[in-house]
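Final report, Chapter 2: Outcomes

The project's central promise was a pipeline that accepts a single protein chain and returns its three-dimensional structure in a standardized token representation, suitable for archiving and comparison. That pipeline is now operational. To close this chapter, we reproduce one record exactly as it appears in the project archive, with the input sequence first and the structure output second.
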Amino acid sequence: MLFKNLCHLLPIGLITALQLSCSESSQENRSKHDFEPRFVITDSLVIDYLGRLSILDSRSDRSEYLMFDFQRKEMVRVDRTGQILLAKDLTGDTRDGYGSYFISAHYHEPGEVLILTNNELFRYDLNLQLIQSRELPFTFFTNKVYGGHVNDLSEGILFTNSFPEHPSGEMLDREDFLTQFPFLTVYDLGQDTTLSRQYIPASSQMLKNPGQYREVAPYSIRNDRTLYLLFSYSPEIYQYSFPELELQDTIPLHPGDAYVQIDPASPKAEPFDRFFKELAASNFVNLYQSNGYLMTAYQGAAPQEKVDALPRNVVGGEAFSALQKEYKIPYYQLIKEGRKVWEAPLDIDFRYKGGRLFANRNLHLPRVETESDQVVFYFYEIQ
């Protein structure tokens, strides 16, 4: 959301004293734990910019942010004061171009930006001039582009979800396709070496209930030698050693009544079948970390009878969108020391990039839909 002007922003010192308040209706959906979190705003970033920006990464010292304008297709570097340092379109077949789309973009080493496409790596200086490009020894296995969640890069070591070899169309159509390759991958960029590979856990819902799923790349959080993974369609967090990818623990999430487990689409199903299945079911949409807590987010589900009443020849029509708006709302869960301690719906779309929890609205103020020539991000800490 864009904000009209800065007079709507409360002083940080006052905001940090506010505790999240909830209506009686949302209290009914809360977990029965006594713990009640506070989502404290620790910082904000205001950018004079007419358009929409998404944060792709931030430098480790938080001095700079790498952003992307989806409409203009521009990479944008912004400093900690909100000053735009550079905006550049890198699409197309140009000297500095990466092609038509990218999977993820990252700060790398002092003075470099990396852009990863389907199976290539592009190295840029901070002026976004191309230094080098080369092919990767694998292809990313994800349906999300322009800053999706498939890649986690830190200190030159990449965790990702990838095809070790390009599968045939016949292999892709198999219902047990997800058991055929070790998709989970750790790769050393500097040495151009794959350090480890691992299969998707057999206990995940995607393997226990085989079929076609729209997104199989897990959300990931890395803490030194520990890696946490959350798959979109399976209600548990998997804990691995890093970089070995040896499974250490499984943390059940026990989502509330709003959660409905999805049935996968059949390879022979009608083209739009998977979209209606997703509307009538839940999926996890992010994994976050703040102040010793892990946090997940999943979407609610529209009642099956209302989904069945929709016309099946169109996706995204007025009736379809109305069900999305009413039922596909985010439910957040907090995990502490391997146990879920809280769950509730919140009217906010939290994001997580560069190790920071943020959103484009102030959770402690009413939502305001208005156009603005400023982009505002709020950075949060869970207490």
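Archive annotation: Confidence is low (pLDDT under 50) at residues 1-31.
This record, like all others produced under the grant, will remain available to the consortium after the project formally closes.
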